[in-house]
Fold this sequence. Notes:
Blueprint: E1 2-13, H1 19-23, E2 26-36, H2 39-44, H3 53-66, H4 72-86, E3 92-98, E4 110-116
Antiparallel strand pairs: 1-2, 2-3, 3-4
Amino acid sequence: MDIIFIQGLKTQAIIGIYDWEREKRQPLIFDIDMRLPIGDAAKSDAIKDTVDYKQVSDEIIQLVEASRFELLESLAEAICEHILKQHRAVTSVRLKVSKPQAVSETDTVGLIIERHSA
């Protein structure tokens, strides 16, 4: 299976369980691998036959900036669900989300999840 990826997508969100995290936006960084067959797109050279990574990036930024989740787990699940629902060619998504300001003693913390279409 082929992979279209987005690496280092940066946006900001209100996210976290602590009061200080609920008061102002903080940066989040996303790495996304979307598995799908690209054979049709390679033959046609047409964007309609693949996934537009700019469109996916814009959708994720909009989703994240509008969200108010407490947990990264909930946000990550919502993003994967959105991609699989809105971009039917995608058979699975691997999402890494980093929250660099969450723990001051680290470069970043976060999680990685992988979800598959039904």
